[in-house]
Amino acid sequence: MISLGRFLFSIFLCHVATAGRTCPKPDVLPFATVVPLKESYDPGEQIVYSCHAGYVSRGGMRRFTCPLTGLWPINTLRCTPRVCPFAGILENGAVRYTTFEYPNTISFACNTGFYLNGSSSARCTEEGKWNVDPPVCTPVTCPLPSIPKFATLSDYKPFAKNHSLYGNKAVFECLPHYAMFGNDTITCTAHGNWTTLPECR
Predict the structure, then answer these.
(1) What are the residue boundaries of the Sushi domain, all occurrences included (predicted)?
(2) pLDDT value, residue 159
């Protein structure tokens, strides 16, 4: 028969053993925060994981309770970055990127003969949206070419509103009794101006 003293002592030891099974500081997960974060937790205390701004939870549990064993359950929670809409195509231009995930930045560039109308870069925000609208590549145009003295246009076809596009050409010829010095053909450049005009003397 167990004496009362030994019985009370066994209860005391059991209480000490149970009370001593605290949970340690929980694992740190990439791009996640634990609340509350402490060095140890008593059985029954709860913690909650939350993903950082710009990240969303993929699978796993977010809330855990410290068990009597003092061992946290295996945490399979993963916080992954938000993904912005596809923006990998720019008509008459190119998009440079690695991924469309937060917080990456993509850049835009136009082909020769086009200029960028809008921002040259865009950043994927915490909300999974681009911080600016995508730009547009607008054709470079040249104004009506000047006509040299004693010359006429022999070949010129403006694109629209008497403007020419990059690469378009204009051809001159001199009036009778005049000689041409220089190239009889000028070209609309990528900078929106014409190459050097010839002279008729």
Answers:
(1) 21-81, 82-139, 140-201
(2) 78
For residues 154-165, give the mean pLDDT.
86
| DSSP-derived secondary structure letter, 159 | S
- Which residue in the block uniquely carries the two structure tokens 């929670």? 77
Rg (CA), the chain: 37
Structure tokens at 157: 């076809």
DSSP-assigned letter for residue 35: E
Question: What average pLDDT is seen over the chain?
Answer: 90
Domain assignment of residue 163, yes or no = yes
73 and 8 in a single domain? The answer is yes
* Phi and psi torsions of 95, nearest 5°: -115, 130
The pLDDT score that the predictor gives to residue 45 is 97
Residue 71 falls within a domain, yes or no? yes
| Cβ atoms within 10 Å, residue 145 | 21
In-domain check, residue 65: yes
| Overall number of domains in the chain | 3
What is the domain-level CATH number for residue 167?
A: 2.10.70.10
Reported as a single tens digit per residue, the pLDDT across 73-124 is 999 999 999 999 999 899 999 999 999 999 999 999 999 999 999 999 999 9
